[in-house]
Amino acid sequence: MARRTYWKGYLKLSLVTCPVAMMPATTESEKIRFHTLNRKTGNRIVSRYADAVSGKPVDEDDEVKAYQTGEDQYVILEDEELDSVALESTRTIDIDVFVPRDSIEWIWYDTPHYMMPDDPVGEEAFSVIRDAMAATDTVGISRLVMYRRERAVMLEPRGRGIVVWTLRYGDEVRNPDDYFGGIEDVPVDKKLMPLLKKLIEERTHPWDPSMVKDPVQDRLLDIITAKKKGRKKPAKAKAEAAAEPDQPSNVINIMDALRKSISSDGKAGKR
To answer: Where is the Ku domain (predicted)?
Structure first.
């Protein structure tokens, strides 16, 4: 399949510059998507912006961006005002700082993209920047306009290419202490740890993408295929439906539960 390029521009480090191309590392093209139809006519329904008070449709030329300052109070921002605060260049990723690779926690990562050289002449410069980051175990930090807004990005060497992660802004990440701070440090019975480790070992397998396969999509495809053939999808038997776990009692013997879990896992493995 031919490679589809999402973004083209330049990667720059001081005086070293090379043309690069970039595309999203993930895709949702295989996901089932639905359209909303008019049941009576079978035609698709078109959505339009309407005035919240009058209910009348609004022409595209009359649609403007605004920031709410109070109840029913807004400050309107024109397109030229929004453009004035954007980056001077939207086509150059200028790496201005490097940080240790493991210093950025996963929670800051947003969306990954694959970056590769876009010209044979620039492959050497691309390779030098990539290999230097790998050798120093660092990642580059820069800024770029993507998805209609300016974003901080992290450049991480990966194999022969570079993965460009968009990063979340500081006000988008909640402080974990607000949620974990109230959890008490309960002492754990040392006898439980060997049993729990054994249970984890029995359930440890090499990573496989099928572990995160979407079963709902597979079932929807079955229904769609059946309807295309003009037959109804038979109802699932109760036994096939995902059974909800029994409600746990207030008092749980963790030791007994772990032993039963290990025993059942061992029997399942033998089968």
So the answer is: 55-184
Q: What are the sequence ranges of the domains in the chain? A: 7-28+85-172, 188-240+248-270
Tens of pLDDT, residue by residue over 127-159, are 999 999 999 999 999 988 877 678 899 999 999
pTM recorded for the entire structure = 0.68
What is the domain class of 7-28+85-172 according to CATH? mainly beta
As a whole number of angstroms, the distance between CA 30 and CA 221 comes to 11
Tell me, what's the pLDDT at 89? Answer: 57
